[in-house]
Design goal:
The chain is of the alpha/beta class and 307 residues long. The chain has helices at residues 29-34, 37-48, 97-112, 179-184, 186-201, 207-220, 225-230, 232-282, 287-294, 298-305; strands at 58-60, 74-79, 82-89, 128-135, 144-148, 167-172. A 6-stranded mixed β-sheet has the order 1-2-3-4-6-5, with helices on both faces. Helix 5 (186-201) crosses helix 6 and helix 6 crosses helix 8. The chain is extended.
């Protein structure tokens, strides 16, 4: 291994373009379709407008359960001295994705570099990271948007410099959005059509029925035909697990948001109380006066004042 680049090779073999020989139980449809070098290369060309040829060296980087502790839907690989971390997002956009990507890329660099290389005196080279999210949820989003790690920073003073930044590009891949991508990548186009059919049929039937009907139609229309014929049962299992999980995570997120709003109100009230007590004390009011005005216990007033 070249100690300067420090890149280890992690290769997944593919029996067919875009189709792995064996589907692992924790795969999602997205990862299974694009988890082979040839399919990842085609997708990357479609997203970025690049024209890397089939001879381009692409190495898959596999980190299990880093972004999720559930079935993962990331496709990560090295290409042309770049480390591309690409995630498919089905529900609403997670505004914390830059932080999750930061944790992911740190683990990726641990895997890609020799443990001793970081202690070398000479400067080492590491692949330049690219962070991409493909959005496939039901809410309307722009064709492309940017999420930044710095937007998550606590800002005590706007003059504080940003010493760490990470930028995530989010592309909307719902059918009809970013059509040039779908035109350049047949697998992506098929994936968009297939998932759009499932989403439409879910309005009037169960998820299992929707998947079965979409599968039958896509096979008839020659969309992902070889893949769906070969892996029909596995695809059904993957999607029912994946989409039910998406529903569960969405509900959990909504509940967390409601709890957060309630907690935020309480914290806001507590902060207002602290300010009021401190203002009274600084204004010359005695502890007894503050207790009488606020009806707070004397010890609570003293705790607020740090006495």
């Amino acid at each position: 291994m070249n100690s300067k680049t420090g890149v280890k090779k992690s290769v997944k073999k593919s029996a067919k373009k875009g189709v792995k020989a064996k589907i692992k139980h924790k795969d999602t449809l997205f990862r299974d379709l694009f988890g082979a070098e040839s399919a990842a290369l085609e997708l990357y060309n479609a997203i970025t407008g690049a024209n890397y040829g089939p001879e381009t060296d692409v190495k898959m980087v596999t980190l299990e359960d880093i972004l999720y502790d559930v079935p993962v839907n990331d496709v990560s690989f090295t290409i042309d001295n770049k480390l591309v971390i690409l995630v498919e997002h089905q529900s609403t956009i997670n505004e914390n994705m830059p932080l999750r990507m930061l944790l992911y890329v740190a683990r990726s660099y641990e895997q890609l570099t020799n443990d001793l290389d970081k202690y070398l005196v000479d400067r080492m080279e590491i692949p330049r990271p690219e962070f991409i999210v493909l959005y496939n949820g039901e809410k309307d989003r722009p064709e492309m948007e940017i999420l930044k790690l710095s937007d998550l920073f606590a800002k005590y003073d706007m003059e504080y410099p940003i010493n760490l930044e990470l930028t995530v590009r989010v592309y909307n891949i719902n059918k009809g959005r970013n059509p040039e991508m779908a035109r350049r990548c047949a697998i992506l186009n098929g994936y968009e059509v297939f998932t759009a059919k499932i989403r439409e049929y879910r309005k009037t039937m169960s998820l299992e029925q929707a998947v079965d009907r979409a599968t039958e139609e896509c096979i008839r229309e020659r969309i992902l035909v070889n893949y769906l014929q070969t892996h029909r049962k596995a695809v059904r299992n993957m999607l029912t697990t994946e989409w039910n999980l998406e529903d569960a995570l969405r509900v959990r997120g909504e509940e967390a948001e409601r709890r957060g709003e309630k907690r935020g109100r309480l914290e806001g009230e507590q902060e207002a109380t602290r300010k009021f007590v401190n203002q009274m004390y600084k204004g010359g009011f005695s502890i007894a006066d503050i207790v009488k005005a606020t009806e707070f216990p004397e010890q609570e007033v003293k705790n607020i004042l740090g006495l």
